[in-house]
Specification:
Layout lengths: L16 E5 L3 E6 L4 E2 L5 E9 L5 E7 L8 E4 L6 H13 L5 E10 L4 E9 L11 E8 H7 L5 H10 L8 H8 L4
Parallel strand pairs: 4-8
Antiparallel strand pairs: 1-2, 2-3, 4-5, 4-6, 5-9, 7-8
Helix pairs in contact: 2-3
The protein binds zinc ion (ZN).
The site of zinc ion has 7 residues, from loops.
Length: 182
């Protein structure tokens, strides 16, 4: 389970011990709650928003920053990631998406978040962004790739989709991609 072990029980605050659990190996355990404690992290979705012809990508600016980014938001507890993606599109862009397709995921350490990326197709280029969006623009596919910050998750998601690099994953994929997003 990697290096993201918790030290204390989130329910009762007791310092966790480590116990063997069948096929899982050594797992943190709360003696007081008598339960194994599995990793806790947030889940978010980000969306590569495309026009109906799939010739343009919508990028936005948010939080007073100058970088163009993808539309994104956190997945609520009990919500499917696809539903979260469509809800964010509805809330932030004021439109119903016409289609959605999974792209890929990245774990983002600084915010302890698993980011799930989708490609979302809009019914037209007309959007009605809410007040959380400072600025937005449709870019050609090539422009979009250049506009997002290098070494960002957005850049990696975009390149993955545009280069078709993720149609099938092999073992090398997992090892070689990891170093690029820190
Ligand atoms: Zn506990």
């Amino acid at each position: 389970m990697g290096t993201q072990h918790m030290n204390y029980c989130m329910e009762c605050g007791t310092k966790l011990t480590i116990k063997p659990l069948k096929s899982e190996g050594e797992v943190p355990f709360c003696e007081r709650c008598e339960t194994f404690v599995f990793p806790v992290f947030s889940t978010a979705c980000s969306m590569i928003v495309m026009n109906p012809e799939q010739t343009k990508i919508l990028l936005i600016k948010q939080y007073g920053r100058d970088d163009y980014i993808l539309v994104a938001g956190y997945v609520n507890k009990g919500e499917d990631a696809e539903d979260a993606a469509l809800r964010e599109i509805r809330e932030e862009l004021g439109v119903e998406a016409a289609g959605i397709r999974f792209n890929r995921t990245h774990y983002f350490g600084p915010s302890n978040t698993l980011m799930i990326n989708f490609r979302v197709l809009l019914p037209s280029e007309e959007i009605h962004p809410n007040e959380e969006i400072d600025d937005w623009r449709w870019f050609s596919l090539a422009e979009a790739r250049e506009k997002v910050r290098p070494n960002s998750l957005a850049r990696d998601f975009l390149e993955g989709m545009l280069d078709g690099a993720y149609h099938f994953h092999d073992n090398k994929y997992g090892l070689s991609r990891k170093k690029q997003v820190t």
